[in-house]
Design a protein that fits this description.
- By secondary structure, the chain is mostly helical.
- It is 77% helix and 0% strand.
- The chain is built from four helices and no strands.
- It has helices spanning 3-24, 28-37, 40-51, 56-69.
- The longest helix has 22 residues, at 3-24.
- It is globular, with a radius of gyration of 12 Å.
Length: 75
């Protein structure tokens, strides 16, 4: 994978994690651990090409719904 794609994915994932933290009253580290625990990092890695074409709000909703389906309890 080319270096720019890796950088883009990492920045996008960090933006999702930061917004998830803000929306759920968590710090960024807590948010990262939660997203990682329920497979969100793999989701973004695997489906980045699709997710980044959505509005950011839609992508964040998609992530939250996925985490819930994987057993996450944060609403």
């Amino acid at each position: 994978m080319e270096r720019d794609m890796i950088k883009d994915k990492a920045e996008y994932l960090m933006a999702l994690i930061s917004n998830f933290a803000k929306n759920h009253g968590l710090n960024v580290f807590q948010s990262y651990r939660y997203v990682k625990r329920y497979g969100g990092i793999e989701l973004v890695d695997e489906h980045y090409e699709i997710m980044h074409t959505l509005s950011f709000a839609e992508a964040l909703d998609m992530l939250v719904n996925y985490l819930k389906r994987q057993g996450g309890k944060i609403e």
